[in-house]
Write a structure and sequence with these properties.
- The chain is of the alpha+beta class.
- It has a single domain, classed as CBS-domain (Roll), CATH 3.10.580.
- The protein has a two-stranded antiparallel ribbon. A two-stranded antiparallel ribbon has the order 3-4.
- The two termini are 22 Å apart.
């Protein structure tokens, strides 16, 4: 049996942001979509940052005179991962770096999907229930 890789478990229908999007709109998108992380991409779809619910919370304590752009509060130094990375290596990264989401990109840095800690919890639930963990991801 082959090892599970990020490409097997990533969510592919990912809502993304642009750097000039309004933070208030991004916050609303997160609430409506029930997600805690939104990748920020450039015009070519390459990951340039990620916005987390924590970033939004930090910014909410300082109401601006004008609307804030996502670029002002997003995390820019984002580590991305290839779809063929073994899931066990990704889990180690999540634990060590204390990240909540891993953007999955192709060789050109274009976003293909995202894997979150919730995806790993779902994987654990399926494994513990004796279900096939290689079935397509429910949120793909």
């Amino acid at each position: 049996m082959r090892s599970l890789v990020l490409g097997d478990m990533m969510t592919t229908n990912v809502k993304t942001l642009r750097e000039d999007d309004a933070l208030s709109s991004a916050d609303w998108d997160m609430v409506v979509s029930e997600v805690r992380h939104l990748p920020v991409v450039d015009a070519a779809g390459r990951v340039v940052g990620i916005l987390s619910d924590r970033d939004v919370l930090r910014a909410s304590g300082h109401p601006p005179a004008e609307p804030l752009a996502v670029a002002r509060v997003m995390t820019r130094d984002v580590q991305t991962f290839p779809p063929d990375l073994p899931a066990v290596e990704a889990a180690v990264h999540l634990l060590r770096a204390k990240h909540g989401a891993l953007p999955v990109v192709n060789e050109a840095g274009v976003l293909l999907g995202i894997v979150t800690t919730t995806d790993f919890v779902e994987l654990a639930r399926r494994a513990l229930a004796g279900l096939d963990i290689h079935q397509p991801h429910a949120r793909a």
